[in-house]
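Late entry, written up from scratch paper. The run itself happened at the end of the previous shift, but nothing got recorded in the book at the time, so transcribing now.
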Amino acid sequence: NIFKNKNKTIGVFGFISQYKNFLQVVKVSIENDYNLIIAGSTHPTSINYGIQNAKNNTAKEISNEILKRKIKNYYIKTAPDDKHLISLIREVDIVIIPYLETGQSASGIASLAIQYGKRVVFSDTELATELSRFLNKKPVLFDVNSDASLASAIDDTLNTYNEKEIIFNGYNFSSNINSYLSSLEISEVSS
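Output as recorded:
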């Protein structure tokens, strides 16, 4: 366990950029005394990727913003390998997908969080609408323009949803692999 207190731990994961809206989660985390895990890196297609002193290095900007706000209980890991990323997802009580609207219809982090049985809260964007078709129950949403809505969604989710309650309805790695193989007319693989 990363933190030495009994506070709930929330997490945001994946490529760090402005549209991911992680700073809203930082603000709500501070106001509600949550532990916070941020794990991700700058997307390789970002302008000036790899330049150490780039002004648009959002991972660095978010880290500096967190430090400036004097948040007590946080853990930041930039560029975690797959194993470490999964262990951090498993560490949190709830995963937040706070993305601003981009028209994005999928999220690897959302899929991993659901696969590993985490409670998940989504901003009310097209991504949640698209993903909800594959889930056994409606995901928890918050108004991306409201810190109060995010805080309420986190609180409601922590108090009313059990872990592993939301699952992919009929989908898993094996079924997805077999669907891809079928579309390519290749024999099925065993689980």
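The helical segments are 22-32, 58-68, 82-91, 108-115, 126-132, 147-160, 173-183.
(Scratch paper discarded after transcription.)
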